[in-house]
Amino acid sequence: GRLISELRERLPRQPLIVLTENVSIRSAIQAIRSGADDYVLKPISPQKLHELVQRHVNRLAEGGREKVSVELEELTSSLHLSIHKAIDHLHEKEDYIRFLELLHRVSFEQISDAVFMIDDRGRLLLINERMRELLGVDDHFDTKAAFWEQFPDLADRFREIHQQMAEKGHQNGRFENVIFERKKDGRQFSLDGQITSVRMASRRKRRMATVFVINRIEPLKKVSDEGDL
Predict the structure, then answer these.
(1) Which helix (H) or strand (E) covers residue 136, if one does?
(2) For residues 179 and 188, is the Cβ–Cβ distance under 8 A?
(3) Which helix (H) or strand (E) holds 150?
(4) Is residue 127 a contact partner of residue 113, using CB atoms and an 8 Å limit?
(5) Dist. CA 90–CA 106, nearest whole Å
(6) DSSP letter for each residue of 201-220
(7) What is the rounded distance in angstroms from the CA atom of residue 150 to the CA atom of residue 152?
(8) CA-to-CA distance for 35 and 8, rounded, in angstroms?
(9) Where are the domains of the chain?
(10) Residue 219, CA distances (Å) to 100, 130, 131, 189 in order
(11) Which H/E stretch holds residue 64?
(12) Residue 55 Ramachandran class (φ > 0 left, ψ -120 to 50 alpha, else beta)
């Protein structure tokens, strides 16, 4: 952390990327908070490294170190971060957006949990393949439409939990045994997980976003399914 801070102080306009053979959520957070622009797990090809450096050069040229970004990108590294630990530590950190940007760049599809994030207007900002599978949607799923309008059966329970969090001033909350019926095939699931509220702040606007992590998905058997046992 000290070396990164010193390099950032001496080279404020240069991309600073940490290459490592081992990764932990704490070391990634520390590197980003110390001034690193990215935290990459080796090996990485020269071409990918060049693309990564070029992207950060462009971001710095646009004032990108302070610019909020919530776009999903082609992944240029294969960091194996635990989403559980990320959510546990997220509320303790002051710079939420920098860390969220890091999460967008890691190997998001390797996370076994179903994860999605919406903004304060209910628009979908981020969704991984596990969540798409649970919802029964494809790659052409309309991310611009309000998420809750498309999945009203999830809306009431999640909104209730979120409201309870807000009333208590909490940024984290948990849910258990939320029942979801997938429209695609009518199958029902029992869901457990957690919710975290994060700030989406830039120089011009300040909004909130919500991250949902579903870490237990249990199919519920229907009476008609008993013959399949």
Answers:
(1) none
(2) yes
(3) helix 147-150
(4) no
(5) 16
(6) E-SS-EEEEEEEEEEEEEEE
(7) 6
(8) 6
(9) 1-111, 114-229
(10) 30, 14, 14, 4
(11) none
(12) alpha
Q: Answer yes or no: are the C-beta atoms of 89 and 191 closer than 8 Å.
A: no
Residues counted in the chain = 229
Task: State how beta strands 17-20 and 38-41 pair.
Answer: parallel
Q: What is the pTM (predicted TM-score) of this model?
A: 0.50
Other beta carbons within 10 angstroms of residue 78's beta carbon come to: 14
Query: What distance in Å separates the CA atoms of residue 191 and residue 189, rounded to the nearest whole number?
Result: 6
Phi-psi region for residue 32, left (φ > 0), alpha (ψ -120 to 50) or beta?
alpha
> What radius of gyration do the chain's Cα atoms show?
19
Taking residue 99's Cβ as centre, other Cβ atoms within 10 Å add up to 20
pLDDT in tens, the chain (229 residues): 678 888 878 877 777 777 776 655 557 667 777 777 777 767 777 777 777 777 767 766 555 444 333 333 333 233 333 444 444 444 444 455 555 555 554 445 445 678 888 877 777 877 887 888 888 887 677 666 677 778 887 877 887 887 887 788 777 788 889 998 888 888 999 999 888 877 665 455 666 778 888 888 999 876 454 444 3
Q: Identify whether 152 is preceded by a cis peptide bond (ω within 30 of 0).
A: no
Q: Which fold has domain 1-111?
A: Rossmann fold (3.40.50)
The one-letter code for the residue type at 59 is R
96 contacts 196 by C-beta, under 8 angstroms: no
CATH T-level topology, domain 114-229: Beta-Lactamase (3.30.450)
